[in-house]
Amino acid sequence: LFFCVLMVQFQFEFQPSIKSVNIEEDENGVFLGGSSGNSSLITEPSWCYRLWPASIIVSQFMEKKTELVRNSKIVLEMGAGTGLCSLVASRLGAETVIATDLKKSIPLLYRNCLKNNYGGLFYKLEHPDEERTEESVCRCADGHILQPFTTSSDEYCCNVCESEIDQDCYSCRECNFDCCLNCVQIVANRQLNLLPTWYSALLSAYCIDVATIGEDGGNEVELKSSVIVQQLDWTSEGDAAAVVATMVPRLASPAREDNNVPIEMMIVASDVSYNPSAVIAFLACVDRLTAQLAARMAEMLPPITVSASLLLAHHERSTVTTKLLQEEIQHRNWVILEERKECLPVEWGIDVTDWVHRRKYNTETG
User: Fold this and answer.
1) pLDDT in tens, 214-229
2) What is the mean pLDDT of residues 83-107?
3) What does the pLDDT read at residue 33?
4) pLDDT at res. 16
5) What pLDDT is recorded for position 276?
6) pLDDT single digits (tens) 14-42
7) Global confidence as pTM
């Protein structure tokens, strides 16, 4: 399995609103603070439900380099978030796009695919200890049912609407997820249209009947899907194996006359290298995916060679993180095909939204 990397580095000005996440880092590349004293606002659930400017950089790059997308048998997006890059890749002519992220990201990611008329594939989001219930039950981002809770300080805020919590709320202490009484009442009244899109999508995912992908990698219906939504935790061997199982039949079909010519695929990621831990986890997952894929393709008769490219947009928040990323890429002996540094000034919620609307990509950020 040959491997090369296309890395787009960029810097941009970010002007967060009162309810946005503060993305400053310390000297070790660790995120600092936020817009509230409650740390849960920073860790849950903000990041994966926002349209980050890095996605714009990757999408613009693919628009300028459409041949990279069209020549790829598969485009795999890691950390897809709201799914913009995956939708753009499919719109530009990619044969198959696999959009992956953590379990909590899947409902909104799947909904955006549906809004753009893509069938998609969907895993049931059931926690092992939880039963599927009506939409009128509040859950945390990982699917646990929330329980009544009384706060011990005034530093709590609602992870759904981001308003301050006086004292009583519903909470999942395992996941540090809190919901104010107003949002609880909205859910109880089944007025999901009054909730942020990501949360209404999350609640719906636990009560509607959705298709489940089999472990064997898919049937005829799945092979016809242009955008596939699939869960991928970078630390999970099982998730990586499931994604590889989805890719193998699509890379091997239809049979080709000359198997000596590598089949091209592309891995896309934007703003996933946000601190040292994320850099290590992300690249380790790339290594795991490519190693498993190479082993599976080598078992084919005759064996099939895959040439993979990585298109990565890295936001330079700290020199520590950037240096680590560069060292890890050099350590892997990946060939740098192209590297560019860009400055993208962004006024949050204006430039980003306008860029998406002008291209008619229908994504919701909640």
Assistant:
1) 333 444 334 444 788 8
2) 89
3) 38
4) 35
5) 92
6) 333 333 333 444 455 444 433 333 333 33
7) 0.78
For the chain, what is the HEC assignment? CEEEEEEEEEECCECCCCCCCCCCECCCCCECCCCCCCCHHHHCCCHHHCCCHHHHHHHHHHHHCHHHHHCCCEEEEECCCCCHHHHHHHHCCCCEEEEEECHHHHHHHHHHHHHCCCCCCCCCCCCCCCCCCCCCCCECCCCCECEEEECCCCCCECCCCCCECCCEEEEECCCCEEECHHHHHHHHCCCHHHCCHHHHHHHHHCCCCCCCCCCCCCCHHHHCCCEEEEECCCCCHHHHHHHHHHHHHHHHCCCCCCCCCCEEEEEEEECCCCCHHHHHHHHHHHHHHHHHHHHHHHCCCCCCCEEEEEEEEEECCCHHHHHHHHHHHHHCCCEEEEEEEEECCECCCCHHHHHHHHCCCCCCCC
CA 299 to chain centre: 30
Asked whether the predicted pLDDT for residue 121 surpasses 50, the reply is yes
Amino acid at residue number 13: E
d(CA 353, CA 17): 15
